Amino acid sequence: MKKLLKRYRVFLIVLVAMIILTIVNQQLGIKALLITGNSVKEMLLVIPPIFLLLGLLDVWVPRETMIKYMGEGSGHKGVLLAIFIGSAAAGPLYGAFPVAAVFMKKGVKFMNILIFIGAWSTTKIPMFLFEMAALGNKFAISRLLIDIPGIIILAFILSKMVSKKEVEALYENAKSIE
């Protein structure tokens, strides 16, 4: 029981805070509950397809293939593939982390995982097309030309800053996830 309470303590704290908020200000509490409900509904619509695709990736793509194209010796090929996969991805950023965990299980280089997460968050193709239509080609292309090198530079710096021991712990943790 203690372990269960510890695991869900943040959820329980937020739940208690929402109940107190509803008691203090009923209108605001109900609004917060509706927003929370909409967020949960959105997650329930996004997460299952992501996990389905992850299962297929895990089964269909051999570890050796992932290592060849995105592993330690992949070079520019791995960087470009990480940017492409991240940019072509659909869904909110929290969907990138299960994908990153599968990439870790498959032996993808840490820097390429960071690039993938950066690309998922900032260079999505639908967002780029929307920016071209709403803000103009010059803005959209300029932002993309700044973001891509920025993602690569940040991923390189972060991969050098994080100790080898911490990276190994992340990979071990990813392997234990089923």
TrEMBL record:
The record's InterPro entries line, in alphabetical order, gives: DUF318 (IPR005524)
What is the protein's membrane topology class?
Multi-pass membrane protein
Q: Where's it mainly located?
A: membrane
Query: Which keywords does this Swiss-Prot/TrEMBL entry list?
Result: Cell membrane, Membrane, Transmembrane, Transmembrane helix
What's the superkingdom here?
Bacteria
Subcellular localization? Cell membrane
TM helices/strands, residue ranges: 42-61, 81-104, 110-132, 144-162
Which Pfam families does the record associate with it? ArsP_1
Respond yes or no to whether keyword Transmembrane is given for this record: yes
Q: Which family does it belong to?
A: Belongs to the UPF0718 family.
Return the protein name: Permease
Identify the species of origin. Lacrimispora defluvii
